[in-house]
Every structure is written in structure tokens, then in C-alpha cells.
Amino acid sequence: MCGIIGYVGDREAAPVLLEGLRRLEYRGYDSAGLAVLEEDGSLCVHKRAGKLDELARALQGAPPRGNLGIGHTRWATHGRPTDANAHPVADCSGRVLVVHNGIIENYRTLKEWLQGRGHRFATETDTEVIAHLVEEGLANGQALPEATRAAVSRLQGANAVLVVSSQWPQGLVAARLGNAGGVVVGLGQGECLVASDLPALLPYTRRVIFLSGGEMAQVSRDGVCIYTLSGQPVSRQPVEVPYDPLSVAKGPYKHFMLKEMMEQPECVLDTLRGRVDFESMRVELEDVDLPREVLSRLRRVVLVGMGTSYHAALVGRHYMETIARLPAEAENASEFRYRDPLVGPDTLVVAVTQSGETVDTLAAMEEARSKGCTLAAVCNVIGSQASRLADCVVYTRCGLEVGVCSTKTFTASLVVLYLLACYLAQARGTQPPEVLAGLLSPLARLPYLLGELTERAEEYERLAHLFYRFGNFLYLGRGIQYPIALEGALKLKEVSYIHAEGYPAGEMKHGPIALIDQDMPVVAIAVRDHLYDKMRNNLEQVKAREGRLIVLASEGDEEMARLADHVVGVPEAPPLLLPVLTAVPLQFFAYYIALRRGCDVDQPRNLAKTVTVE
User: Fold this and answer.
1) Residues 576-599: pLDDT tens digits?
2) Cα–Cα distances in angstroms (integers) from residue 63 to residues 20, 66, 248, in the given order
3) In this structure, what are the phi and psi dihedrals at residue 443, rounded to the nearest 5 degrees?
4) Is residue 99 within 8 Å of 135, Cβ to Cβ?
5) Three-class SS of residue 289?
6) How confident is the model at residue 197 (pLDDT cuts 50, 70, 90)?
7) What is the Cα–Cα distance from 168 to 501, expressed in whole angstroms?
8) Which residues are catalytic, by number?
9) Beta carbons within 8 Å of 264's beta carbon, 6+ residues apart
10) What is the CB neighbour count within 10 angstroms for residue 369?
């Protein structure tokens, strides 16, 4: 996660930018910077590694003077957190400055092309290719908006971009690709602002426009013009945001659950930031520093959790065995704590807990501690009890999750468990560098693929409209997708109050097949992996009994399209990362069914966000 802000108007820009960065600092704090177009037409840049206070101290007594500028607060993905790698990032001439949130998947290809044309790179960031691409457009006679459109159209991945140039002093240009990285334009009297999030805008205006993926905006003090990246004008009326914390937090969404599902691309992006070095293809987990003697004695991993976190732990078991090459098991924390488990100093116990305060998970951690285990926690809340109990912790940088049913913290937990398994493989030397690189490289594209799925909300809503009156559902999956079947069934139960059960598809003939008829919809996960043929055979048996079949299938799978009554496409990805993707349509399906049934999706009956008592 990174925070971006821009201002154009009658005020001095620097204080507005600095205040906006303070409101966005939760989005990143390994470096910060700002740039202002001064009265003489030059761009004055100040940037510092470290927290925002370092930048504020550098500006004391001599802030840049001018009415147009951009700012940034960073969590690093490409390039260490140094002064040079802090944003804004410049082109060769220093006349173009860019701030950016995202991962440019094809930046190496773009960088090599630009270097071949004589461009010199001064940072380790992927962001710098944007500045040089814009410089190319300006050199060809394009104005800044056209040059920016041409530049960002060449980027692959989910990205939010803000550009200024001394050659276009009337304003700035913003663009959004995919669904990771928000861009909100605030419209004031004789001034406009652009930011990642609403809190940075609200001291100045409550009239805002949210950019969608594939859109860009020309922003001046007189207003905003919005276009698609293909150049088509977009007509969109500003919305008035009520100045209260709840409405601000919910943004343009009807429910927190919907907002949090839509935030998953950016949450995964934030979870990856600074933890994967895509240059050297290594994992760096800032709060995991297990001694060599601890790593060498590990012989087993036990993952514990409750509810959705337990389902994440079940996926994590696959990661630990397949990637880290350690025997692993996943257990319900409330069962683990009471059965005198045979664990000890050779066991790593990984507690998966969204809140870090779940009583059964904490008790399981205490039990493991008493037996001499090494404790790790996967958690979303900094300073929680689980993070204090653990020897090491990896946070899912999702921000506050208000909806009682976990969505974004689930997918982020899967990514953290994947990273933790890669870290163990790297630290223990159980995977050669080329295999580890093959495991890490696809992570750069994962936020973009999640964005593709969240953009299909209307498809999920139409499907839910066909099935919301049914009273029972069966969810099927195999291998690493079986936990996702469990999670899909749980989501439907939690928010719609419909009875649903998740099963391993191979278990179907051992009882559940007796339930299948026209009144029992079957939701199956049948993406292309090594169990695809087995899964297809199971689904043939469902159809032979006139079951209504909804299949999550790999995009373009014509065989599943012929077999199923309804197909939900899932983008291609490595099988180990597919659970992160297949979880998302099932969340939306549950949400829209609950909506049709008139249920309170943010606060389902009888449920609490955190279970702190038995």
C-alpha cells in the first residue's frame, strides 16, 4: 500500500500535501516525498527515507512555494527504502514527476526498451519507467494528458498513477489501472485534489469522484475531465460524502462487506509490499527472524485457527508441505488446546487469527508454548495478544475489517502463508533458487487477477438472483481447493442463513450423494490442476442425478461449460495460488444471495467479529 496525493488551486500546495500525507501515512511509512511547481516554473522535490516526520523536518523553515504539487508515502516493492527510491520519481530531464501505487508487472521489458533509447535510470523502482515513458510522449509533441495516457496504457498490472510536469503547469493527471490502488478526485471552490483515500480530501471538500479501473483524469483548479484509457470521455457526477467517520469509511459502497471484498486486490498488493524482492527473487519478512538453530531443528508445522482462519490454515498446510517441504497439519484451535498434542521444540506452530484475540487460538498458542514449540502468528491487528505471544508475526496489511464475515483478511492470510512457506524454503535451503523464483514471480500479477474478479460483480449478482430461494447447498472441492469449498459454504451460512456444507469431492459417494436432486444446488471448484480429471468425474455423477451444477472453472474451459448449468470463470494462475482467486466469486455469491433475502450482511445474527469467550 502507498498513499498518493495531489493538489492544484489557490492555496500553498506544500502544507496541503503534507497534511494529506499524514492522513495517508497508514498506507506506508518507509519513505515519503513531495514536489511543488514553483513560481519560476521549476519543480522542487523533497523526499526522505523513513517516516513522514523525516520529511516534515526537512521542510521546516523552507517549504517549496507554489500552488500545484504531488506527494507520496511509500511501502517498497521494487528498490530499498532510500532517499533516491522515495517518490516522486523523475525522468531524465527532471521535468516529469510521478507518484505511484502498484506493481508494474512488465517493468523489466519497458526498462530495457527505454534504456535502448538512451534513457538513464537513477532509482531501483519500477515507477521510474512511467516517468521515462511520459518523457517519450512529451518529446514527440504530446501534451501531458496524452503522454500519460500512452504511457500507462503500456503498463501491465494494477496501478494508480499521478503525474505532473513543468511543461503542463495548469494541473496534473491521474490514472487507475485495475482495481488495486484507489483514486479519488475532490472538487473544491477554485481547487481540486486527488488522493488514494477520502480522509486526505475531507478537510477541503466533500464533493468527490471515484475513478474506476481503466480511467484517467485531467485535474485543474477549474475541475476535472475523465476519460477512458482509450480516450473516450466519461460522464460522471460528483457524489456528496457525509462528513461522518462511518460514511467516510464505507466510501461509495452499500455495505462494508462489499467494500472489503472490493479491497482485496489492494490488500494483497499491500501484503506483498517490501516482502518480495522481484529483482533477486527473495522473500524478506520484516518480523520473522528465526535463529538458524531453530530453523534447522524444525521437523513439523502445525497450523491452528478457527472458522475462516482455520480454512486458511488448511490451505497453508499444502503450502508448508509443497513449498517448505515440512510435514504439516492444520487443526481447529479449540480441539488442539484440549487434546494434549504431541508437539515440542521441533514443531513450528502457526496461529492464523484475523483479530489476534480469538480465545481458542490464544489458548492453543499457550498450550504450544508450554510444550516448547516455536510460535508464529498470521494476524491483521498490530499489537494484538497473538502478536505478543508469538516468536514472530507476519501481518496481513488489510486495515480495519468492519464486516463480521472475514473476506479480505482471508485472501491476505493465504498470501502470507504462501510467503511464510517460501521464507522457510529459502532459509532452510529446501528449494533451489530457480524453483523459488518460479514460486515468487507469479505473485506480481496476483493483485491484477483479483481485480479482474472483483470487476465481475454484476455476473455474481445475476447468478445469485437465480438461486437465492434454495434452502440447501453442497460445495465441493479437491486437494488445495477443498478448504475453499469449506469457506464458500461458511460464507453462505454466515450471511444468508442458508444451510450449506463443504465436502471433499471424493467423499461425495460416501454419503452426501444421497442428498443430490433438483432442489440441491452443487457449487464445485473445478479449475485446471492435477486433480481436474478426478473432479470432472465427480461432477458427472452430480449431473447423472439431476443436480443443479454451478462450477468455478478456468477461463475458456469448454468441457466444464458443457457439463455445468452455470460456469464462473477464474483467471489462469499457478495451482498453488488459485485458492486466492477461487475464494472471491464465492464471497460475492454469498453476499448477493444474502442481499436478495434481506439479511444484514455486515452484522449477521448471532455472530461477533472476534470470539473472545468460549
Assistant:
1) 999 999 999 999 999 999 999 999
2) 15, 10, 30
3) -65, -30
4) no
5) coil
6) confident
7) 59
8) 2, 609
9) 407, 408, 411, 412, 450, 454, 584
10) 15
